[in-house]
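Appendix B. Chain record.
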Amino acid sequence: MFSALKVKGMSLYRLARKGIEIDRKEREVTIFDLQITSMDLPEVHFKISCSKGTYIRALARDIGRKMGCGGHLLRLRRVRSGSFTLERSISWETLKQATGLADLRPWLMTLKEALSRLPEMVVDERLVRKARVGQDMMVRDLSSHRLPAFDKGQWVALTSHEDGLVAVVKSEVGGTDLKGMSPEVVVLRAFRVFHPQHRFQTADHG
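Structure tokens predicted for this chain:
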């Protein structure tokens, strides 16, 4: 119950603090790697690499149950999330002392770096225009495009040769499911749209 997962708009941890417990659906996650780094019983320190949606507190509880002694998490430190690493993070003390962009530049990354793990789809000018006004992209719009592999509900980065990153969109269906679908089925919905970089360069010089 003590997680940020929301059910009907309410975070589970808020319900738990009120003493309210509700049924939760099981969710499948992947543990890529789990290593015990040190032991000082009853404490065990471990490092884990896992898929999104994994709740380490619940994992510690489940391991304790399997061992028959019970278990809970004392400390949790996230060292990486996608392209974001602990080494590239900025401390709160440094952030408070920053007085301008120059002080923050060592910790900044480009949008391309930040979104490098998303499937990339290169689109033509017609779809660039659709994305920029927030229009949905349907099966018929994508028939002439080469699609990357993506699952239903996954984020996809739209790029163009001229403008670079155009938008981040969310898939409504899986990329492998499009064959045989109606041309009017919505495949991608715009989530975040980005203006061409040259517009900002022009404004800076003007």
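Further analysis of this model is presented in Appendix C.
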